[in-house]
Design a protein that fits this description.
Enzyme class: isomerase
Number of strands: 8
Keywords: Carbohydrate metabolism, Isomerase, Metal-binding
Structural class: alpha/beta
Shape: globular
InterPro entries: Aldolase_TIM, Ribul_P_3_epim, Ribul_P_3_epim-like, RibuloseP-bd_barrel
CATH superfamily: Aldolase class I
Pathway: Carbohydrate degradation
Radius of gyration: 16 Å
Helix content: 25-40%
Mean pLDDT: 95
Strand order of the largest sheet: 1-8-7-6-5-4-3-2
Pfam family, one: Ribul_P_3_epim
Order of helices and strands: EHEHEHEHEEHEHEHH
């Protein structure tokens, strides 16, 4: 099965954002990954609700919105209204994770949980059946272009085992340092969705590169 590809718009040319979104529309990308950073939960600030709305206005692919923010529960409705079809919150930022996932689903969006590199997969054992997507961070969140963390393969494998043991239909997304070299091994470990930012947008031909990633089986 071909992987689902979610290019991260964070790595695009913001001065030509509409053009970048239209390029993704014409590509084989499955989602547009939108990284929201608040400068508190992660040491960087990206963009917020108005830019997400602008992306959505031109996008023909579903928006996969990754909330790297504190108190994400306060912004779920706003980002859903801005066009998010998937809303992922960090387990480290949600003391009442089950309630937050329920709130996302009540808004009609898919509910995702993002997991930082240091966070154990075992933290998901009581909640995995409520989760549509788990986003495994394969770099420390906050900045693009970082080196891929090798332990990610094992983490994906352990998460796949957990999903199968619970009979869940949760998809596994990997975000950070993804490229053509590590894609086959990530898929072998059980990944379903691959997020790629700098690797796609810094390419001479992003559309062709996305197609090559789709064929990495």
């Amino acid at each position: 099965m071909n992987p689902l590809i979610a290019p991260s718009i964070l790595a695009s040319d913001f001065a030509n954002l509409q053009q970048e979104v239209e390029m993704l529309n014409q590509s084989e990308a499955d989602f547009i990954h939108v990284d929201i950073m608040d400068g508190v939960f992660v040491p960087n600030i990206s963009f917020g609700i108005p830019v997400t709305e602008s992306i959505h206005k031109h996008a023909k692919k579903p928006l996969d919105v990754h909330l790297m923010i504190v108190h994400p529960e306060n912004y779920l409705e706003a980002f859903r209204n801005a066009g998010a079809e998937i809303l992922s919150v960090h387990i480290e930022a949600c003391p009442h994770l089950h309630r937050t996932l329920q709130a996302i689903k009540q808004l009609g969006a898919k509910a995702g949980v993002a997991v930082n590199p240091h966070t154990s997969i075992s933290m998901l054992s009581e909640i995995i059946e409520e989760v549509d997507l788990v986003c495994i961070m394969s770099v420390n969140p906050g900045f693009g272009g970082q080196k891929f963390i090798e332990n990610t393969y094992s983490k994906v494998s352990r998460l796949k085992d957990l999903i199968l043991s619970k009979g869940s239909k949760t998809l596994i997304e990997v975000d950070g340092g993804v490229n053509l070299d590590n894609t086959p091994r990530l898929l072998d470990a059980g990944a379903d969705i691959l997020v790629a930012g700098s690797f796609v947008f810094n390419s001479p031909d992003p559309t062709q590169l996305i197609s090559r990633m789709k064929e990495s089986v």
